[in-house]
Protein backbone atom coordinates (compact mmCIF):
# COMPACT_ATOMS: atom_id res chain seq x y z
CA UNK A 1 0.00 0.00 0.00
CA UNK A 2 1.16 3.54 -0.76
CA UNK A 3 -0.03 7.03 0.15
CA UNK A 4 -2.52 8.90 -1.99
CA UNK A 5 0.19 11.49 -2.71
CA UNK A 6 2.55 8.77 -4.00
CA UNK A 7 -0.24 7.34 -6.18
CA UNK A 8 -0.99 10.80 -7.61
CA UNK A 9 2.68 11.37 -8.42
CA UNK A 10 2.85 7.95 -10.09
CA UNK A 11 -0.17 8.91 -12.26
CA UNK A 12 1.55 12.16 -13.25
CA UNK A 13 4.80 10.40 -14.10
CA UNK A 14 2.95 7.75 -16.12
CA UNK A 15 1.20 10.46 -18.16
CA UNK A 16 4.50 12.27 -18.72
CA UNK A 17 6.29 9.04 -19.69
CA UNK A 18 3.57 8.19 -22.21
CA UNK A 19 3.78 11.65 -23.74
CA UNK A 20 7.59 11.54 -23.91
CA UNK A 21 7.50 8.04 -25.42
CA UNK A 22 5.56 9.56 -28.32
CA UNK A 23 8.00 12.43 -28.79
CA UNK A 24 6.16 15.07 -26.78
CA UNK A 25 8.07 17.49 -24.52
CA UNK A 26 6.58 18.04 -21.07
CA UNK A 27 7.55 20.41 -18.27
CA UNK A 28 5.97 20.36 -14.82
CA UNK A 29 6.40 21.79 -11.34
CA UNK A 30 4.35 20.91 -8.27
CA UNK A 31 2.09 23.52 -6.74
CA UNK A 32 2.27 23.93 -3.00
CA UNK A 33 -0.45 21.86 -1.28
CA UNK A 34 -3.68 23.82 -0.92
CA UNK A 35 -6.38 23.46 1.69
CA UNK A 36 -9.29 21.45 0.33
CA UNK A 37 -12.50 20.03 1.79
CA UNK A 38 -11.83 17.14 4.17
CA UNK A 39 -13.63 14.62 1.94
CA UNK A 40 -11.09 14.92 -0.88
CA UNK A 41 -7.41 15.46 -1.61
CA UNK A 42 -6.12 17.47 -4.58
CA UNK A 43 -2.65 17.20 -6.11
CA UNK A 44 -1.79 19.78 -8.75
CA UNK A 45 1.08 20.58 -11.07
CA UNK A 46 1.80 23.53 -13.29
CA UNK A 47 2.53 22.08 -16.74
CA UNK A 48 3.57 23.01 -20.25
CA UNK A 49 3.41 20.76 -23.28
CA UNK A 50 5.60 20.84 -26.36
CA UNK A 51 7.22 23.97 -27.79
CA UNK A 52 4.16 26.18 -27.90
CA UNK A 53 2.98 28.52 -25.20
CA UNK A 54 0.19 26.36 -23.73
CA UNK A 55 0.63 26.27 -19.97
CA UNK A 56 -2.02 24.82 -17.71
CA UNK A 57 -2.80 23.24 -14.37
CA UNK A 58 -2.90 19.45 -14.27
CA UNK A 59 -4.78 18.38 -11.14
CA UNK A 60 -5.80 15.01 -9.73
CA UNK A 61 -8.60 14.83 -7.16
CA UNK A 62 -8.98 11.84 -4.86
CA UNK A 63 -12.43 11.37 -3.35
CA UNK A 64 -11.32 10.40 0.13
CA UNK A 65 -8.89 11.33 2.86
CA UNK A 66 -5.32 12.32 2.00
CA UNK A 67 -4.15 9.97 4.78
CA UNK A 68 -5.67 6.91 3.05
CA UNK A 69 -3.40 4.11 1.91
CA UNK A 70 -4.17 2.82 -1.57
CA UNK A 71 -2.87 -0.09 -3.65
CA UNK A 72 0.20 0.57 -5.77
CA UNK A 73 -0.97 1.47 -9.27
CA UNK A 74 -4.11 3.18 -7.96
CA UNK A 75 -5.50 5.59 -10.54
CA UNK A 76 -8.77 6.41 -8.81
CA UNK A 77 -8.45 10.14 -9.49
CA UNK A 78 -10.64 12.69 -11.21
CA UNK A 79 -8.47 14.52 -13.73
CA UNK A 80 -8.68 18.27 -14.33
CA UNK A 81 -6.78 19.84 -17.24
CA UNK A 82 -6.76 23.65 -17.33
CA UNK A 83 -9.61 23.68 -14.80
CA UNK A 84 -11.90 21.40 -16.80
CA UNK A 85 -12.87 17.89 -15.76
CA UNK A 86 -11.58 15.33 -18.21
CA UNK A 87 -8.86 12.76 -18.73
CA UNK A 88 -5.16 12.56 -19.47
CA UNK A 89 -5.98 12.38 -23.19
CA UNK A 90 -7.22 15.98 -22.91
CA UNK A 91 -3.56 17.01 -22.87
CA UNK A 92 -3.54 16.36 -26.61
CA UNK A 93 -5.93 18.04 -29.05
CA UNK A 94 -6.05 14.79 -31.03
CA UNK A 95 -6.84 12.83 -27.84
CA UNK A 96 -3.88 10.50 -28.41
CA UNK A 97 -0.22 11.32 -27.71
CA UNK A 98 0.80 9.05 -30.61
CA UNK A 99 -1.17 11.09 -33.15
CA UNK A 100 0.36 14.38 -34.20
CA UNK A 101 -1.71 17.42 -33.40
CA UNK A 102 -2.40 20.13 -35.93
CA UNK A 103 0.81 22.14 -36.24
CA UNK A 104 0.63 25.43 -34.42
CA UNK A 105 2.13 28.44 -36.13
CA UNK A 106 5.52 29.40 -34.77
CA UNK A 107 5.83 32.59 -32.82
CA UNK A 108 8.26 33.96 -35.41
CA UNK A 109 10.50 35.58 -32.82
CA UNK A 110 13.62 37.48 -33.91
CA UNK A 111 16.55 39.25 -32.28
CA UNK A 112 16.61 43.04 -32.43
CA UNK A 113 18.92 42.80 -35.48
CA UNK A 114 16.44 40.51 -37.26
CA UNK A 115 18.03 37.06 -36.73
CA UNK A 116 15.39 34.35 -36.20
CA UNK A 117 15.19 32.66 -32.80
CA UNK A 118 14.42 29.00 -32.17
CA UNK A 119 12.86 27.46 -29.08
CA UNK A 120 15.28 25.49 -26.88
CA UNK A 121 13.46 24.58 -23.65
CA UNK A 122 11.58 25.97 -20.70
CA UNK A 123 12.91 26.98 -17.31
CA UNK A 124 13.04 25.60 -14.74
CA UNK A 125 14.45 22.48 -16.37
CA UNK A 126 14.38 19.09 -14.64
CA UNK A 127 17.86 17.97 -15.60
CA UNK A 128 21.03 19.81 -14.61
CA UNK A 129 22.29 21.94 -17.44
CA UNK A 130 23.77 25.27 -18.38
CA UNK A 131 22.65 28.49 -16.74
CA UNK A 132 20.62 29.71 -19.71
CA UNK A 133 20.08 33.07 -18.03
CA UNK A 134 23.77 33.91 -18.45
CA UNK A 135 24.63 32.50 -21.89
CA UNK A 136 25.37 35.08 -24.60
CA UNK A 137 22.81 35.43 -27.37
CA UNK A 138 20.03 33.73 -25.37
CA UNK A 139 16.58 35.29 -25.12
CA UNK A 140 13.95 34.49 -22.49
CA UNK A 141 10.21 34.91 -23.06
CA UNK A 142 7.75 35.62 -20.28
CA UNK A 143 4.62 33.63 -21.04
CA UNK A 144 2.47 35.93 -18.91
CA UNK A 145 3.25 39.20 -20.67
CA UNK A 146 4.80 37.79 -23.88
CA UNK A 147 7.90 39.93 -23.28
CA UNK A 148 11.13 38.81 -24.93
CA UNK A 149 14.24 39.59 -22.85
CA UNK A 150 17.76 39.60 -24.30
CA UNK A 151 20.06 38.09 -21.64
CA UNK A 152 22.92 40.29 -22.92
CA UNK A 153 21.02 43.55 -22.37
CA UNK A 154 21.16 44.45 -18.64
CA UNK A 155 18.31 46.95 -19.09
CA UNK A 156 15.77 44.43 -20.40
CA UNK A 157 13.37 42.64 -18.04
CA UNK A 158 9.70 41.77 -17.78
CA UNK A 159 7.39 44.18 -16.00
CA UNK A 160 5.45 41.36 -14.27
CA UNK A 161 8.62 40.35 -12.43
CA UNK A 162 8.82 36.86 -13.89
CA UNK A 163 12.09 37.82 -15.61
CA UNK A 164 13.74 40.52 -13.52
CA UNK A 165 17.25 41.72 -12.74
CA UNK A 166 19.15 42.78 -9.65
CA UNK A 167 20.76 46.22 -9.36
CA UNK A 168 23.85 44.97 -11.24
CA UNK A 169 21.79 43.74 -14.20
CA UNK A 170 22.02 40.00 -13.40
CA UNK A 171 18.88 37.96 -14.02
CA UNK A 172 17.11 36.69 -10.92
CA UNK A 173 15.43 33.28 -10.55
CA UNK A 174 12.07 33.01 -12.25
CA UNK A 175 8.78 32.81 -10.38
CA UNK A 176 7.97 29.23 -9.31
CA UNK A 177 4.60 28.69 -11.04
CA UNK A 178 5.45 29.69 -14.55
CA UNK A 179 7.82 28.45 -17.21
CA UNK A 180 10.09 30.81 -19.06
CA UNK A 181 10.72 29.83 -22.67
CA UNK A 182 14.36 29.92 -23.76
CA UNK A 183 15.34 30.82 -27.33
CA UNK A 184 18.67 31.02 -29.09
CA UNK A 185 19.52 32.54 -32.46
CA UNK A 186 19.33 30.19 -35.42
CA UNK A 187 22.93 29.71 -36.62
CA UNK A 188 23.70 31.41 -39.88
CA UNK A 189 24.28 28.94 -42.69
CA UNK A 190 27.82 28.92 -44.03
Written overview of the protein:
The chain is mainly beta. Helices cover 9% and strands 28% of the residues. The protein contains one helix and eleven strands. It has one helix at residues 4-21; strands spanning 2-3, 26-30, 41-49, 55-62, 69-70, 78-81, 84-86, 117-123, 139-142, 148-150, 180-185. The strands form three sheets. The protein has a five-stranded antiparallel beta sheet, covered by helices on one side. The protein has a four-stranded antiparallel beta sheet with strand order 8-11-9-10, with no helix packed on it. A two-stranded antiparallel sheet has the order 1-5. The chain is elongated.
Short description:
The chain is mostly beta strands and 190 residues long.
Helix share bin: under 10%
Q: What general outline do the C-alpha atoms trace? A: elongated
Overall pLDDT metric: 83
Low-pLDDT residue spans: none
As a whole number of angstroms, the C-alpha radius of gyration is: 19 Å
How many helix segments? 1
SSE series: EHEEEEEEEEEE
> Number of DSSP strands?
11
For the sheet with most strands, the description reads:
5 strands, antiparallel
First and last CA, distance: 60 Å
Strand order of the largest sheet: 2-3-4-6-7
| Class from secondary-structure proportions | mainly beta
- The proportion of strand residues reads 25-35%
Amino acid sequence: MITVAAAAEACLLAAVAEAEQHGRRVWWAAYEPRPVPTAEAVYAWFMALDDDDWEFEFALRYNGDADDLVPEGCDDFTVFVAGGKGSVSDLYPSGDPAEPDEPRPGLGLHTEDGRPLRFVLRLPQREPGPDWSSLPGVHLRCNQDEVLVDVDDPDQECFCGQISRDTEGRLLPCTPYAFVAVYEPVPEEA
